[in-house]
Each structure stands twice: as structure tokens, then as C-alpha cells.
């Protein structure tokens, strides 16, 4: 509905005749809208805490804060897991290096040992000769002086 202030403002801007036509047009359209059953929202001021939008924003804000805290916590866990994995990899690398040093020491010891005789004709005859000597010991004559 038009207030008396709005009607006065229309008359000042458009003059009495044109303002009356505008007002008549507005009233006619308002009646048609009422007949269609269209309702307008109440434009009375409402407090912040009464609006559904504010409540929704509060819920969303709380959810976002919770999600952010979860993300921060998970990132902290990932950083800790990565740090632990790096420490384990470093320890494993040091253990491998120690084992390599031990293998090299053992290789040096094995390389210093005399090699065994391979199975050749000469090598086969050595055990045979030893066995023959054990089976038939030589007799030694005492030496007199």
C-alpha cells in the first residue's frame, strides 16, 4: 500500500494528474495480485538469531571448523608418519651399510685363506698315497753312531 508520504512524493515528481494515474495503476495491479492469492513477506525487522539462514550459517560454520580441525590433525599425522618412515629408511640404510662392511671383511678373510686342491688326477693321487702309506707303514732302521 502506498503511504501518504509516497503519494506526496509522486505528485511532486510527476504532477497531480500523472501521479493519480500512476496510483490508480498501482492499486489496480495490487487488487489483481490479491485476487491471485499472492502474499508478500512481512518486512518487519527480525533479529539475527531468528532467521533460518543465520542458523544454517552457524551450523555450516561449526561443520567447517570441525572439518578444518580434522584436516589439520590428519596432516599432522601424515607429517609424523612421513618423518617416522624417513627415520626407518635411514636406519635400514645404515644397517645395510654395516652388513656390506661385514661382508667385505669376510670376503677379505676368505681371499687370504689358501685355496683347496681341485679334483684332478694329481689331487686324487694324494689321498690314495696317504691311504697307502697308512696301510703300509715304512719301517725305519735306527741309526747308530
Explain what this protein looks like in three dimensions:
The chain is 74% helix and 0% strand. It is mainly alpha-helical and 145 residues long. It has 2 domains: 1-40; 44-113. The longest helix is centred in the middle third of the chain and has 61 residues, at 52-112.
Rg on CA atoms, Å: 54 Å
Helical coverage, percent range: over 70%
Order of helices and strands: HHHH
Report the sheet with the most strands, covering strand number, pairing sense and barrel closure. Answer: none
What is the topology?
Elements (H helix, E strand, L loop, with lengths): L3 H11 L1 H21 L15 H61 L8 H15 L10
Helix pairs in contact: 1-2
Please describe the structure with a list of short key phrases separated by commas or semicolons:
rod-shaped; mainly alpha; 2 domains; 145 residues
Short summary:
With 145 residues, this protein is an all-alpha fold. The protein has helices at residues 4-14, 16-36, 52-112, 121-135.
Amino acid at each position: 500500500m502506498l503511504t501518504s508520504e509516497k503519494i506526496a512524493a509522486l505528485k511532486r515528481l510527476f504532477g497531480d494528474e500523472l501521479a493519480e494515474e500512476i496510483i490508480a495503476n498501482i492499486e489496480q495491479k495490487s487488487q489483481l495480485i490479491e485476487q491471485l492469492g499472492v502474499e508478500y513477506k512481512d518486512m518487519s525487522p527480525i533479529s539475527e538469531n531468528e532467521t533460518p539462514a543465520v542458523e544454517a550459517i552457524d551450523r555450516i560454520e561449526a561443520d567447517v571448523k570441525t572439518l578444518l580441525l580434522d584436516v589439520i590433525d590428519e596432516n599432522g599425522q601424515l607429517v609424523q608418519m612421513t618423518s617416522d618412515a624417513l627415520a626407518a629408511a635411514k636406519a635400514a640404510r645404515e644397517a645395510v651399510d654395516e652388513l656390506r662392511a661385514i661382508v667385505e671383511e669376510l670376503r677379505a678373510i676368505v681371499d687370504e685363506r689358501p685355496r683347496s686342491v681341485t679334483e684332478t688326477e694329481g689331487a686324487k693321487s694324494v689321498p690314495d698315497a696317504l691311504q697307502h702309506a697308512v696301510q703300509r707303514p715304512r719301517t725305519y732302521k735306527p741309526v747308530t753312531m
